[in-house]
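Predict the assembly for these four chains.
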Amino acid sequence: VARKLTDAEIQAALPKVPHWRLAADRLQRDFEFGDFAEAWGFMSSVALAAEAMNHHPDWSNSWNKVTIELVTHSSDGVTERDVELAQKISQIFNG
Amino acid sequence: VARKLTDAEIQAALPKVPHWRLAADRLQRDFEFGDFAEAWGFMSSVALAAEAMNHHPDWSNSWNKVTIELVTHSSDGVTERDVELAQKISQIFNG
Amino acid sequence: VARKLTDAEIQAALPKVPHWRLAADRLQRDFEFGDFAEAWGFMSSVALAAEAMNHHPDWSNSWNKVTIELVTHSSDGVTERDVELAQKISQIFNG
Amino acid sequence: VARKLTDAEIQAALPKVPHWRLAADRLQRDFEFGDFAEAWGFMSSVALAAEAMNHHPDWSNSWNKVTIELVTHSSDGVTERDVELAQKISQIFNG
């Protein structure tokens, strides 16, 4: 099981994941697209990245909007795996 | 724009969509699957049904769990289109 | 049922769908991506566009490569619907 | 790199993957669904399984039909990884 990061470690990690915020003990980011098809294409790539890491987001979608929250449930907090998945998701978003 | 259903109309429609509940002025249902891959396969079929109707769910996913909420934002409430999409989603779930 | 376009009509339509070729009585185009996740994100958006039109591609995928062939089976040839779907697919690809 | 299986090894493996055939030096299987949405839901689950294994199918789709071919390109033939992915795909299909 990945170790829960301390607050200091999370603050040190945040610059590695621009546009992600720490809230409610999770890494969070909102994404907006031109329409549902674009949002869904993005989510479909993210789903693959998540399954490949065997680490899955808590996420929601409403038409062109996607909100992603990352937390390691088994560690009860943010771990290095969340930072890694956040980086991959940002790469997918940046195309 | 579809007309917002009255409370009486929604109560009359609920038997047409078993397992869906009315909450917060929306049709809601929780789904649970064996793993993320199953949940995602279901969501991928639902995404097609939604796009074909040009009527999209507010939904969230956490690994094997999916929660779907249906509301017609432009009508500020539940309409016949939400009932129709709920029926299609249930059909997809029942396979 | 959409009417099968004549050869002259298809030649006149091709400038509307750059990068698509006419071969084997179909509109065809090859796409290449950085990896499978990118290819799959694209395909997931195209799937929505196809379902919304109720007009579906014959397509194949091998890791980062996608080949799409468009034909209207019920008309036994290329129709305006294929041209329209080709345009939508190109828009999705161009992002 | 996984080792290419000998013909004898492939024949011994085939009973582990019912409904799959050996053809053109590949494991192949055809799937048929009720409609495109069902086919696409299946493909979306398979895409996750493939990405998790970092081993991807050569596959094609035409509305409700999906044909999957499995080969390990880097080994120039069928390997244990193809047998494993075939098993996972059959599990997804069987639900």
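The helical segments of chain B are 7-13, 36-53, 80-94. Residues 36-53 of chain B form the longest helix (18 residues).
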